[in-house]
Design brief:
This protein is an alpha+beta fold and 321 residues long. It has 12 helices and 8 strands. The longest helix is centred in the middle third of the chain and has 16 residues, at 112-127. The structure holds cobalamin. Residues 1, 48-49, 52-53, 56, 65, 68, 104, 106, 141-142, 146-150, 153-154, 160, 163-166, 173, 175-177, 195-196, 219-221, 223, 226, 228-229, 232-233, 252-254, 256 line the site of cobalamin (B12).
Amino acid sequence: MRPAASRAPRRPPPPLPDDSAGLSRAAVDSARIHGFAAAGILASARPVSFERYRGWLAQGLHGEMAYLERDAAARSSFDAILPFTRSVIAVARAIPARGPGNVAKYARGEDYHHVVRRHLKAVIEDLRPLAPRDAHFRVCVDTAPLLEREIAARAGLGFLGKNGLLVVPGLGSHVVLGEILTDVALAPTLVPGDPGADRCGTCTACIDACPTAAFVAPRVLDARKCVAYLTIEKRGPFTAAEEAALEGRLFGCDVCQDVCPFNEARGAQPTGPGASLDPAEILALDANAFRARFFGSAVWRATHEGLARNAAAALRRGVRA
Ligand code: B12
């Protein structure tokens, strides 16, 4: 996850389009055609959760994820990514929420960064002929310094559950997010109600089920305890307590989503390909074999050493694939 420095030159934005509402509709329709489950438009505005983000960092809840500190300031304005950003097209793509396994669902199959990027580029191609000639577009998926869940909620894609994740009504939280920043003025999606409102009521299933009690409060995650952080982002050896908490998981964790009633809509699904890795096989991979197997998969992020460490921890607990 590298901070994305702005590459676009600082030149004046294009003239306002004649029909910003029509362009917005075209963007949302195109996103649907290209397989996104939800899409909406946010008019460029200062993020509302930037101070919250800074507070989270100040408490050290991000652990070793130094990149979140390095490019923190860039999250206070879209212009750090694309000068004169006027609108953000926000999308959510459903991930196949298939069955249990020791690999988190979002990481099974082709790397979602590639999938979302490819389809957002297709959306841009659809929009270019309709947009002013000098328009700029910039695709972002996960790695840019953006507060993606805030953008999605404010663009009307859904709301934030107590597990901190964006829930798309009728679909649930098993989605990944992406954005197109543009200097074209698009009509924003009208969002009924407060996008930050708590829609979970008295339910605390995610907080109660977290295997490491990683939620400090509803929507506030101590990433240092989260199994996703431990298995993907943390470098170096585990403590005994961390190792015990993994319960054989090799990459990421879905517990706070699997227990969420908003995810029941998609029902139980049979386990699909890539759900589990055999820890013994993983331990036997050398660096070249790791590359051959995981380059182009989200699992690559864990690194060869990290995944081998996770596999060794699973084997010590007697967990097989
Ligand atoms: C760092 C990171 C992690 C870290 C820290 C997680 C975290 N909760 O912050 C770790 C490695 C632990 C992690 C784990 C996971 N991650 Co992650 N992660 C990110 C990343 C890169 C940055 C998140 C961040 O800024 N955190 C900072 C803190 C301050 O966030 P926060 O306290 O939750 O507050 C945010 C929101 O709650 C919201 N908010 C809070 N209050 C309010 C109020 C209002 C009014 C509004 C509008 C918004 C709002 O805004 C805040 C800032 O964004 C994003 C991509 C991105 N660029 O945004 C993906 C992202 C959040 N991760 C994602 C995924 C899929 C996961 C996992 C499910 C993967 C897995 N299965 O193992 C787990 C889920 C763990 C969890 N319950 O959070 C998806 C989430 C999709 C969704 N449905 O929301 C994202 C958006 C990536 C993507 N492009 O799809 N992740």
